[in-house]
From TrEMBL:
Residues 11-322 form the Adenosine deaminase domain. The record marks 216 as: Important for catalytic activity. It comes from Massilia aerilata. The keyword Aminoacyl-tRNA synthetase does not apply. This is Adenine deaminase. Signal peptide: none annotated. Its EC number is 3.5.4.2. It comes from the Bacteria. Its cofactor is Zn(2+). It catalyses: adenine + H2O + H(+) = hypoxanthine + NH4(+).
Length: 322
């Protein structure tokens, strides 16, 4: 209960949140109604009932379907504003938000609509917020390159690029050229790796993509030499405990390797991934992990410190929150 207060009250940064994954069933229905989009579910409750996943792909199918209600700049604004307000309530001081432009441009939505809506909500936010444009790895590198070129007029509205969607079968090597292009544009680089995919994908995210953080990365413990390297390079991992349970990366929270990652000396952070789908926002992730695992107040402080250290912020800004 004191630990609970520490976890909820401590200032923190959130570095792994897909903004489309913050779309709650209630807002999906509201936007569907507003836009005249018909949904294959009769009610909010029925939609929520469908949130039972067996792996990453089973989640992604329903996540992309949910995003289909987003049509106007105001829709993207409302979704983002709702998340940022919720994050503020969890004492998030700074958030780096992933967004998936290809999910929307594939439906005929202009990238300008997507970026302007999300970005404007970040400008009006109660917490510091920046954007990371993610490429969908189940699509081709040519499509990723076209997306990045499309986004160049809005270059000042996002700070980096990431790589998400179906991991296995779509290794980092597939996106070497688009990440090189992003690097030349001065963008920060991150990638999902070692969520469902093997430790080799983490290694190639580092060697081939030159990423500055690894999203998830929990499978690194299968390779001790890789762990030693991640520690040596102070490479942050953006871990998402509730996501890992819902997508069956671990069977139950008591089996999550968060404590082992910390004990190995890794720069672990705790994040929500897709809070509307996985049963909670960032504080729910801290609380669920700390309830099931042998973690104490010193781990809590370490995780919060790691979250600011790993953020793409100016050093003086980090010092103000640390
Ligand atoms: N897109 C949204 N959430 C994701 C996750 N956890 N892994 C890969 N792609 C995603
Ligand atoms: Zn993710």
């Amino acid at each position: 209960e004191e630990l609970r207060r520490t976890l909820t009250a401590m200032p923190k940064a959130e570095l792994h949140i897909h903004i489309e994954g913050s779309l709650e069933p209630e807002l999906i229905f509201e936007l569907a109604q507003r836009n005249g989009v018909s949904l294959p579910y009769p009610s909010v409750e029925a939609l929520r009932q469908a949130y039972a996943f067996s792996d990453l792909q089973s989640f992604l199918d329903i996540y992309y379907a949910g995003a289909s209600v987003l049509l106007t700049e105001q829709d993207f604004y409302d979704m983002t504003a709702a998340y940022l307000q919720r994050a503020a309530a969890d004492n998030v001081r700074h958030a780096e938000l992933f967004f998936d432009p290809q999910t929307h441009t594939a439906r005929g939505i202009a990238i300008e609509t997507v970026i302007n809506g999300i970005w404007r909500a970040c400008q009006d936010s109660p917490v510091s917020a920046s954007l990371i444009l993610c490429f969908l790895r189940h699509l081709s590198e040519e499509e990723a390159i076209a997306t990045l070129e499309d986004a160049i007029p809005y270059r000042d509205k996002f700070i980096g690029v990431g790589l998400d969607s179906s991991e296995v079968g779509h290794p980092p090597e597939k996106f070497a050229r688009v990440f090189e292009r992003a690097r030349n544009l001065g963008l920060h680089l991150v990638a999902h790796a070692g969520e469902e995919g093997p430790p080799a994908y983490i290694e190639s995210a580092l060697d081939v993509l030159n990423v500055e953080r690894i999203d998830h990365g929990v499978r690194c413990l299968e390779d001790p030499a890789l762990v030693a390297r991640l520690v040596r390079e102070h490479m942050a991992l953006t871990v998402c405990p509730l996501s890992n349970i819902k997508l069956r990366v671990f069977d139950v929270m008591g089996q999550h390797n968060l404590r082992r990652l910390l004990d190995a000396g890794l720069a672990v952070t705790v994040n929500s991934d897709d809070p509307a789908y996985f049963g909670g926002y960032v504080n729910d992730n801290y609380l669920a992990a700390f309830e099931a695992l042998p973690l104490d107040a010193s781990h809590a402080r370490q995780l919060a410190r790691n979250s600011f250290n790993a953020a793409f912020l100016e050093p003086e800004q980090k010092r103000a929150w640390l």
